[in-house]
Design a protein that fits this description.
The complex is a heterodimer. By secondary structure, chain A is mainly alpha-helical. Helix content of chain A is 71%, strand content 3%. In chain B, helix 4 packs antiparallel against helix 5 and helix 4 crosses helix 8. Classes of the chains: A mainly alpha, B alpha+beta.
Chain lengths: 155, 225
């Protein structure tokens, strides 16, 4: 029988590894926060019909006003915000050595990575326009994926 | 205590995110402050229907008036315009639509498009130009020589192109666009599309369903514009 304490502190993890691993998860949580702020801002801008968020970026409003900006009437950015919040939560739990959170974190980041590739494809080849906020979000996702892949202790 | 710390952090971030989003939403959607004295346009929800310079589509005595402040280069406006066209077919004589120019500076060719639409108005073909500008928005938005394209549109809707070209440059046409823009600003318009249905600003969504819902409510309440 596995107790909750055993689950949180697996015997296989040596203290130095845990420490380095925690740092990686805290960095991941920080990146997720940046993504969360970006996606939340875009969600509110969408809900309020604020087209001015694009400023002078050509093509930005083409992306934000496109059919891909909503999924079943819900702003696509809202799904992004939820995903970033899930990543943040999982990263914080992983940093506190909740081992189950690590698998969840990798799964969510993998899904976000695929979604980001799809959205980049849409911007480049379907809409022929780019939105800086969407590019920032993709960059955050790629950073997260890179961080979790590159640092062995995070896997 | 340490056991609960991660959950406290997650909860705090959740609250902070929801709170910030709610404040941002409130700031962007709160009612516009009362207009200053002298801005008569702002005091009335709908400009006098008798004003011949208004771009009106539909019967003048329709029970519901939908006003849109639009920018021809704004993709959301193109989508809203399409939805409005469909609604006008649906509601027939119960709905009239008024278009106000509100070209945004951030759109490179929006002002030129507004001038083209107003130049078409001089020859009585505003709505034809309005429709074609939205129809080909993705084409001219990325073009370098938009005036050439606008002239081709003018020709295709049967305008005298030489006159259209001259009118586009005229002070009267420019003044007409500026007048609409100032009228919008006085009513608190900041972005496009901004839609008023019987004088009430439509917020949060410009979907056909939302507009239909508001039109139905206006018809049911008998709230005349």
């Amino acid at each position: 029988m596995i107790t909750s304490k055993e689950n949180r502190f697996p015997a296989s993890n040596s203290p130095p590894t845990r420490s380095r691993s925690s740092t990686v998860y805290w960095i991941a949580a920080g990146i997720a926060l940046l993504g969360l702020a970006d996606a939340t801002f875009l969600t509110v801008a969408h809900l309020t019909g604020d087209d001015a968020v694009c400023g002078s970026f050509a093509g930005c409003s083409t992306v934000l006003g496109s059919a891909y900006a909503t999924i079943k009437g819900i702003p696509t950015a809202a799904f992004g915000a939820l995903a970033y919040f899930a990543v943040f939560s999982a990263a914080v739990l992983a940093a506190f050595r909740y081992t189950r959170a690590r698998g969840f974190l990798l799964t969510v980041v993998a899904a976000m990575f695929v979604a980001s590739l799809y959205f980049l494809y849409l911007q480049a080849f379907v809409l022929h326009a780019f939105c800086p906020f969407c590019l920032f979000s993709a960059a955050m996702t790629f950073l997260l994926a890179g961080l979790l892949i590159a640092v062995p202790t995070a896997r | 205590m340490k056991r609960f710390l991660p959950f406290l952090i997650i909860g705090a971030v959740a609250l902070l995110t929801v709170g910030t989003a709610a404040v941002m939403y409130w700031v962007k959607t709160r009612p516009t402050p009362a207009p200053q004295a002298g801005t008569a346009v702002a005091a009335t929800p709908v400009e006098a229907p008798e004003n011949p310079s208004l771009h009106v589509r539909g019967p003048r005595n329709a029970p519901v008036t939908l006003e849109i402040y639009g920018d021809f280069q704004c993709p959301s406006c193109a989508l809203a315009s399409q939805a409005i066209d469909e609604l006008q077919k649906e509601y027939k004589d119960k709905l009239k639509v008024i278009f106000h120019e509100f070209p945004l500076e951030m759109h490179q060719h929006a002002a030129a498009a507004a001038l083209a639409a107003e130049a078409a108005t001089v020859q009585g073909k505003f709505w034809e130009m309005h429709d074609i500008l939205y129809q080909y928005q993705s084409v001219w938005s990325n073009a370098t020589n938009v005036n050439y394209l606008f002239e081709s549109y003018a020709e295709s809707i049967g305008l005298d192109v030489a006159r259209f070209r001259a009118d586009r440059e005229s002070a009267d046409v420019r003044a007409r666009v500026l007048e609409d823009g100032k009228g919008g600003e006085a009513r608190g318009v900041k972005n496009t599309p901004t839609i008023f249905i019987n004088g009430t600003e439509l917020r949060t969504s410009f979907s056909k369903e939302k507009m239909r819902e508001t039109i139905d409510a206006a018809l049911a309440s008998g709230n005349k514009p």
